[in-house]
Amino acid sequence: MTTTVDCADVAGLAGTDLGFTEWLEVTQDRVNLFADATDDHQWIHVDPERAAEGPFGGPIAHGFLSLSLTVKFWSELFDVTGVTTKVNYGLDKVRFVSPVKVGARVRGGAVIAEVTEVRGGFQFAVDQTIEIEGADKPAVVARGLYRFYA
């Protein structure tokens, strides 16, 4: 469920736990499209037969594909009204904790760690987690930086 707030009310949101998104299946088609977009066609991602004999027992998503889902999940969890522009400003401390096997389902969680005023708007530092359904460890933990301008 999306938490929506007006830009006049964002200053006190530090510490807000936004919960988790719905699950999303990571398909081989998604992995192949990411491989094409990034020119990263390593066999552990795009060759299911060879990957079945590899270290993960099947193809896995690129770490950066898993990381890129933080943007999708963040926008599903949080929105600000009364702004004209929303940008991804950067990342702090990213870790790829566990590989995401093709066919696995993942979801995103977010906690707003900090809200700071920047010229013309606000910056959010968001502690984000990509969980793998049924796994003990997450796929990704990262701090995303997002800016919303009035």
Automatic annotation (TrEMBL):
Protein name: MaoC family dehydratase
Family membership noted in the UniProt record: Belongs to the enoyl-CoA hydratase/isomerase family.
A Pfam family per the record: MaoC_dehydratas
Domain MaoC-like: 14-121
Taxonomic source organism: Microbacterium yannicii
